[in-house]
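Thread amino acids onto this structure.
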């Protein structure tokens, strides 16, 4: 894994020059201690390119806005490949924009919310109406509640124990066997320690369930 990090870093900072060295200064113009070697995203290197068409799968006909590796179709279980289809200037069908882009419709799911209200939110989330498609939750959802298929989990801090991590991360990806799990590491020492050595969390000891309820 460190080799991967080094390669992607040298790609971003070297070949692409997307990251450039910078000196971070405080309001009085003095260099901020401990920030030697800091880099920032080079805004001049960011470019937006207008689309001129879509990549369509020859098997399932799904349109993609980008071409994946080896021209492979990115649809789950489809083994087709994509070919570029130039945009027709007389076609005002917003075919890429109209494809399954969903607004985020979040609700809070925490102990602050009365039980019957929480159950109503869970039903809306699991239902097909899509009235609620994102839950912002505390460990009220970590155990016990069947919330159905999830595509992604965002943790806003590093969980206390490996068992908490896997209970939260394992909520997603049951349907397609794939999920996006992102953990935000705060500046707290607990989060920094696991950010520096994530395998301690990922491969850590899972204790039998005893007293983990009620923690973060
Ligand atoms: Zn396909």
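Threaded sequence (216 positions):
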């Amino acid at each position: 894994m460190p080799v991967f990090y080094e390669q992607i870093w040298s790609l971003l900072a070297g070949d692409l020059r997307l990251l450039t060295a910078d000196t971070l200064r405080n309001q009085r113009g003095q260099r901020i201690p401990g920030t030697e070697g800091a880099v920032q995203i080079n805004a001049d290197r960011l470019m937006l390119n207008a689309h001129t068409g879509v990549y369509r799968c020859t098997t399932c006909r799904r349109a993609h806005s980008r071409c994946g590796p080896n021209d492979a179709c990115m649809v789950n279980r489809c083994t087709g490949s994509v070919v570029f289809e130039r945009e027709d200037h007389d076609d005002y069908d917003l075919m890429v924009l109209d494809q399954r882009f969903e607004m985020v419709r979040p609700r809070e799911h925490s102990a602050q919310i009365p039980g019957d209200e929480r159950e109503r939110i869970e039903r809306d989330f699991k239902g097909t109406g899509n009235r609620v498609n994102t839950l912002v939750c505390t460990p009220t959802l970590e155990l016990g509640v069947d919330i159905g298929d999830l595509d992604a989990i965002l943790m806003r801090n590093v969980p206390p124990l490996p068992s908490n991590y896997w209970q939260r991360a394992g909520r997603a990806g049951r349907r397609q066997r794939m999920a996006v799990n992102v953990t935000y590491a705060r500046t707290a020492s607990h989060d920094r320690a696991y950010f520096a050595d994530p395998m301690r969390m990922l491969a850590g000891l899972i204790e039998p369930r005893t007293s983990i309820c009620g923690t973060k």
